[in-house]
Amino acid sequence: MSLPMQSLSLKTFQRVASRQTRLFTTAVPGPSSTTGGAGIGNVESQLLPSMNDAELFKHCKYPRTTSIIGAPMTFGQPFVGTDAGPALLRDRGLRNVLTSLGWRVEDLPDLDFDTEQVSDARDPPNARNCSLVAQGTSKLADTVESKLRKGHFPLVIGGDHSVGIGSLTGILRVIPDIGIIWVDAHADLNTPATSGSGNMHGMPVGLLLDHSEENAVDFTKLPGFEFLIDGPRISPDQIVYIGLRDIDPTERLWIRDYGIKAFTMYDIDHFGIGKVMDMAFEHLNKGNPNRPLHISYDIDAVDPLLAPATGTKVRGGLTYREAHFVAEAAAQSGNLASAEIVEFNPSLSDDGGASETLELGEQLIASFMGKSLL
Ligand SMILES: [Mn+2]
């Protein structure tokens, strides 16, 4: 039941959406509502890919094992509620979704980001909750690193997007050359020097990018982030953006100056999502068709009519099928080595909107973890 949004009037869409919401909220949660697809009128027994398929997830050790890493971070943005993502996705039956796709699953306890509350006296105003974000992301980096070294597929569930600082640092320690697919309405390319809000969920790429000297981040001024002083960096040609539509002036300047490959919603409208993903892989696979890839999926990349329960909604986002295509294409590349999905906030929508957003998130996870339509 995925209707192309362009063909729907707003009224029709809202009617369909509210009907879906009713059905979703009364449906029994769990794998049956997910592995079957969008949830309505689906035949549940679909052909599912097998993790024995040597072409899929070829960078993971056999038997293919994924480690679910709950990263309930809220300190990168101002709203309480983004910490609920991992628990709610677990409650929906995330483990069963993954096992039904053929994965061996290691479901780790959520990382604890609240225990080491420190004084905020040292936190600069242009990097809010800096010490807490640093402590949390440092823990996450260590966890992701250790799972990758074991040959597992780290599946990080946020939390706000500041967790990307940790995921990427952990990945880069093991796979310095990882190709990064950043699916987002925003570029998250700010630094404390450029951010208007000081919210660190807008900085994961900005902090880790290998900047020119004048733009370099001074980590000695960011309490807790000492682990990044000599930490690994992302080179500008290592990352591709998909779905951008809300870009700050300095971010725009840097995307152009550094030559970062960015596919905005304009490009998706112009070329179609299939061609856009082809071009994204062409860019990342230059010189190495087997380059390992990481996908960082911010749920706010999807249109807010479909994913209302998130903090920084921007209209004109990915349609239901475009959102899935990005995830499916990442899996079908065979090179996906790790993934994260972030920015669910059920408290920022009504119950229907929250369950709709979480269901979509669960389905997107299924798609980038290898679910295919046939
Ligand atoms: Mn983001």
Task: Please characterize this protein's 3D structure.
- This protein is α/β, with parallel strands linked by helices and 374 residues long.
- It has a single domain, classed as Arginase, Chain A.
- 36% of the residues lie in helices and 12% in strands.
- The chain is built from twelve helices and eight strands.
- It has helices at residues 10-26, 32-35, 85-92, 94-100, 130-149, 163-174, 204-208, 249-258, 265-271, 273-284, 320-332, 351-368; strands spanning 65-71, 104-107, 153-158, 179-183, 239-244, 261-264, 293-298, 336-342.
- It has an eight-stranded parallel β-sheet, sandwiched between helices.
- Strand 5 (239-244), helix 8 and strand 6 (261-264) form a beta-alpha-beta unit.
- Helix 3 (85-92) packs across helix 12, helix 9 (265-271) crosses helix 10 and helix 11 (320-332) runs parallel beside helix 12.
- The longest helix has 20 residues, at 130-149.
- The chain is globular and about 55 Å long.
- One of its GO terms (biological process) is arginine metabolic process.
- InterPro entries: Arginase (IPR014033), Ureohydrolase (IPR006035), Ureohydrolase_dom_sf (IPR023696), Ureohydrolase_Mn_BS (IPR020855).
